[in-house]
Amino acid sequence: MTNNNSIRVVVIDDHAQFRASLISVLVESPGIEIVGEGSNGREAERIVRDNQPDVVLLDDNIPVLNGEETVKRIKQISKCRILMLTISQREEDLMGAIRSGADGYILKNSDPKEFNNAIKRVISGK
Fold this sequence. Notes:
By secondary structure, this protein is α/β, with parallel strands linked by helices. The chain has a single domain (about 5-125), classed as Response regulator (Rossmann fold, 3-Layer(aba) Sandwich), CATH 3.40.50. About 45% of the residues lie in helices and about 20% in strands. The chain has a five-stranded parallel beta sheet with strand order 2-1-3-4-5, sandwiched between helices.
């Protein structure tokens, strides 16, 4: 985290409306600073490299590189935590995200407050 104790967050999702909505919720959350956003796996790599976030919220189904491949690449260049954003409640999909190196996952249809809670939980190692 930065010196001002804000959690630096990057949001990667190819659905612009969802991404904008999530960002608007997070910017209102105390202690969270949005430092980047993107829509595909290649952008995610560049944004993480350039901004060194604490947490990446990463759609599991993004173009260019899929979510699992993007997680692996981000983990090679950063020690940030990764929360997968998903619409799937299938256990095999969720476990695939964890196997690829994601630190957690959250369903996209979760209550807005849950995103803030999930970020704080993952940054604390839970």
